[in-house]
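Handout, section B. The chain below has 266 residues.
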Amino acid sequence: MFIASFLDYSNYCRSGVDCAGMDNPNAWDSLGLLMSVFLAGVIAAALVVVSRALPGRKVAWLDLGQFGAALSIFALWTAFWTILDISNAGAGLILGLLAAIVLAAGAVAGPLVPFLKAPLLSPASPAQGVQGGQAPYGAQPSQGYGYPGGGAQQQPYGAQPSQGYGYPGGPQQGRPAQADPAHTQQAQAPQPAQGGAAPAGDFTPFWFAVPVARPLYGEDGSPNPIAELAPGTWYLAVEQRGQSLIAQTQDGRRGVLQDTTGIQRG
C-alpha cells in the first residue's frame, strides 16, 4: 500500500486534450485519502505483525491485533467508497483497494486460522545464561559444569573412591590397603533415594510459559478468572500448591494456575 500511494489515483483527462504529459495526482496530493486509506493500511499491517511477534501485548485492554483488524477494515471501507466516487480510478487507488482487501481478510481471519494464529517468534527464556533447550516442568535438569554435583561420575553404592597419589590415607606400595572403620560405616549407611520429591519449603521461583492460553484464578478460590496467561509470554511461579502454581503476571497480579500440563520452564 505504501508503494501504491505514489501511483496515480485518478486518470482524469478531458476529451480532445493531449494528456501524455499531464501529471496526474497521487495519494500524497490528498491528505485525507493518504491518511485514511494508505497510511492507515500500513499502520494496520504493522500492528498485526507486532501482535503475531509479541502475543499478549495490549493497549487500553485491547490486543494489538484487534486494533490492526479494526484499522484495516476502516481502510478497506474508505478505499471502497473512494473508488466508487472517482469515475477514472488510477492504478494507485485500484492497488490500494486490493491491498486493503487482502489486509482486512488476513487480520480478521488471523485469530480463526491456526496457521495465522501461531506466533512469529518463539518465546525467549528470561535466564539468558542457560543454554540449550528448555526442560519441561517437573523434569530434573541435567548435571554439568556449574551444576551442584556435576562433572563427577557417580560411584556404585558401597564402592570405595579410588585412591592414588596425593589422596589422604592412600595405600603405600608393598602393603595392602587397610579399610577405615569410620569410612566403612559411612559407606554402609543407607543412601537417600534419588529423585524423591523435594519438600514444599524448598520451592524455588522460576519463569515459565504456557503452550496455550490458560486462565489464572484468584487465590481466594473464586471461580472467575482474574487474568489469562498468553503463549509466548514469560510468567513467574512464586509458590506451588499441590499440582497448581501461584503465578505472577507482568503487572504484579497473582493467582492460581490450575492446569500446569505442558508448560515450558525457563
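Note. The longest strand covers residues 235-241. Compare this with the example in section A.
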